[in-house]
Design brief:
Blueprint lengths: L8 H12 L3 H5 L5 H8 L7 H17 L15 H18 L5 H18 L2 H17 L3 H18 L2 H17 L3 H12 L6 H14 L3 H8 L7 H21 L1
Amino acid sequence: MEKIEILTPGQRLREIRRKLGVRQEDLAGKNLSKNYISMFENDKRRISIINATYLSQNINEIAKEKGLDFRVASNYFIKSEIDIVKDKCLEWLEQCKKSEVNDNYRVYSNIYGAIFLAEKYELLDILADSYFLKGCYLYNNKLYSCAIIHFSQSLFYYTKNGEIEREGNCYLNMAKVYYKMEYYDLAISYFNLAGATKKIDKEEISYYKALSFYKLKEYRLAKSTLDNILLRDGKTLELENSISKKLTRDEKKTM
């Protein structure tokens, strides 16, 4: 896992100054004093947006003169510790989404880092997203029992935050996991919960519910569920054909 170090605004300035190899008075310029820079670096005073803007401009000019390829915005010296933590967590999670599925070490390392910081700073939205993302990767790696645990954790935090739409995504993913585990009754229950929330693809839910009923040999329920789908793709037509064959066979048996 990447080393976790959250710097205060003053520590951020000191770190940049050392990277630039300049003195406090060099950053102070004409508008600020060495004492002002020193007090800010040692977290003994806050900085105004005007001074932060002046300071960032000075830093960017010095970096340009030294041929260094980086720029700093004024809000970097104003953001609170918790804002920096949130930015770092979101950065890690975004990296996970862009990583290759096989790059599990990088993914899990970033997610663990985000969970660690989110728990420490009580960032419930980050916790929910982190557990959800980890659940998705566990699902992709066929670690279904672990995936359920993480989706459940995610659901807990989404519910606590009142994020109903994301609750629906949790229910949907948990339903798919239970389907993979061949717990078809449970899968149907969670598909129903997912379907009760808005902005969830109802036709996708109907397909998987029909498939679950089919696996349970409840062919009439499978057919009636599948009838809710208006746009039939290849997999839907294939399932419909399989259900029809089973129903025809059952009808012949009763004759």
